[in-house]
Amino acid sequence: MSTDLSLRDSEEIQGDILAGFKKDNVSVLFLKFEDAARARDWLRRLTPQVSTTREVAAFNEKFSEAKQASGGDDPTSLTATWLGVSFTFEGLRMLASTDPFPTAPPVGGGLEAFKEGSAQRAGALGDTGDNSPDNWLFGNGKNQPIHAVLKISADTERDLQSAIEAQRIAAAECRVLIVYQQNAQTLLGSRRGKEHFGFKDGISEPGIRGFDRPDPSKPDEVDGHPGTRLIPAGEFVCGLENDRFSGPPSQYPEWARNGSFQVIRRLAQDVPGWWSQVAVKLQELRNAKAVPDHATTEWLAARMVGRWRSGAPVCKHPDRDVPNNPDAAKDNDFNFRDDPEGLATPLWSHLRKTEPRAGLQEAPDKPPLDADVLNGRRIMRRGTPYGAPFDPASEGPGGPDDPRGLLFICYQADIQRQFEFIQVDWMDQPNFPPNRDSGGATPPGHAKPRLVPGRDPVTQNCTNPDTGEVTPVDYESRNAGGLIEHTPLSFAQFVQTTGSVYAFMPSLSILRGLCEGRLTPVGQTTTQTGGQTGTQTGGQTTTPQGGGQPKPQPVKAYPCDEFVTVPDQYRRGGQSQYWAFHGDRCRLISVADGAAHTDRRVEDDTWLNTWTCLQGVGRVDCVLPVPDQQDPGGKSWYWVFHSTGGRQQYRLVSITCGAGRYTTTLERPDRDLTNWGSLSGVGQVDCWLPVPDQQRVGGKSWYWCFHTTSGRQQYRLISIADGSGHTDVRERTDRELSQWTSLNGLSRVDCFLPVPDRQRVGGNSEYWVFCGQSYRRISIADGSGHPDRLVDGDRTCDNWASLG
Structure pTM? Predict the structure, then answer.
């Protein structure tokens, strides 16, 4: 029987929703737009870098296979950097220049929650007192507004910092302000996979129907993960099939399809206070003779959580942890049907409060509900700890007052029905499970009246900030006579909300639409076969749209990524034509010889995927013509550098000219930069500049390679030999841009465009240098040292009619 896992191949759903980023190093940038048009420019450059479910799922599977093959060690050679972007209600409205909800969303639903935002709904969520928005570091609705959230995840700290720096530069160029930056990192050593209180996290994530492979013998569970139920994908991704209790997929606006609503919370953890209180409460229980003699602080802490530090469930291992049992550490094959009173796993434990499983009763005399009744309440959690782990002996990072906690992120199709319901109706509700209070009467089998179970003491504030009244939890135990005793325990607050945002993570199609200022899909990726991607009519190159997809809406073609000379249209009739690449599109422009160098747009933008050789490329970073393969027999070859999943690769392509048409071909598929010896240590190649008097001299061509490594752009000198192998050599090590007199004041260069009639004239070659929204003109002399000078200072790219 075939299994439908088609969601794994989705290039519409952003990564991290269904396919978790699963990286050790995370940074979340909270962003403010200062200008809608510039914000669209920023998004236009970002969108090709956004990770898709397909990319992340394929990488995670490959990583898992390599880890198993190595006996459990992470494969250090297999790394990636993932980006995900989401928007608040105000951010969507600003980008789209229209209200996402032309009519008011239904009262009390998730769409209303998204529109109002977490600060406005803080009181109902228990975010009062110390947790109130007045004390938040971001998202409080009073200081800087947040319009977008950019999540960056990487395997290494170096890769993360490099990506952060690149995104900081991109944001600054488009007047996008970073309101707050929160870094987070998986804890190291024995703490790996755990949060700061010391307990394994992320064990109970649901499986997803259509994404996770079902168990052949138990088709409602994930293969290899006993007890992990498969949940309809529509509980996390809007518009897909969902649970029968969740309402029809049509309840969402069309722009929400294939997207997910995101909740982000910065939760500060008081680790010393946690363990201190656990010890105090254990002594109270000992005094009440409510715990066995062998009970320790670890024993009580495990009951508060519902699992031991290793992740082993208390209900299966009631006496002690089993840290050396990997199966127990990821065990979900249990429920609470046989523990209705919470004698093994307390009713108020974090595990039962957040996911009651099979065993939840509407009243003590009612039969327990099946677990699938609660499918519509599940959320997809993607949290990461932040701050140094607690070390009582540390005077620096790791000390008792050092900031630490959990960067909580979750995805769901309905914020109110899922996150808020769990938070308000389960975790923060003292009378959940419901109807436990016996109202002063002693039920049969109990030594005294029942109490309400109490709030979740692990995460919630059990103290009323207005009255100071503490709501205790009801610790239930069995006395020597077999009757159930009820011992109240009052806990102070361990976890404080210090920031919160509600956002929406759109599909890739909607992202492209937002680049155009609309909340409708444009430029859907299609598969195109065949060789021809361009025809020539009346001397002008045309690039047809593949698959009948709509043309992109007019936008500015800067910041520019790369210019590629049309092979047979260089200085022809006093005009030179270029393909100008920007974001996920390309346009054809021309530049005239002469003092004015008049430029014009020959053709409007087309999507990159209309080029056969660029299928699967979201954005072209830079292009390097193969030096000895330019127009032999009408065919020119190029190395195209592009980034996929945050990691740059390159491919070999060709463009054939003649007989009135252009044909592009993918000559060799993507390879890693490690195949270039001259690029050792390079994170990303940004642009190439040929050394003007060292092209094909003695069978070798020299280039300045500008690259970004560890967040800083530098350059090195390399050479490439003619011949089938095209042997490359690093001729000089990295240097700073400050070595170039003509680049003074620039922290990076996007691309160079040779001034067509000013190449090697009088021993000098001139170039336009593009950086963000501006450009300048420089000159490089032939000869030793290649002295450079600034010809014209910075000007706005608005001066280029062809790029407007």
Answer: 0.74
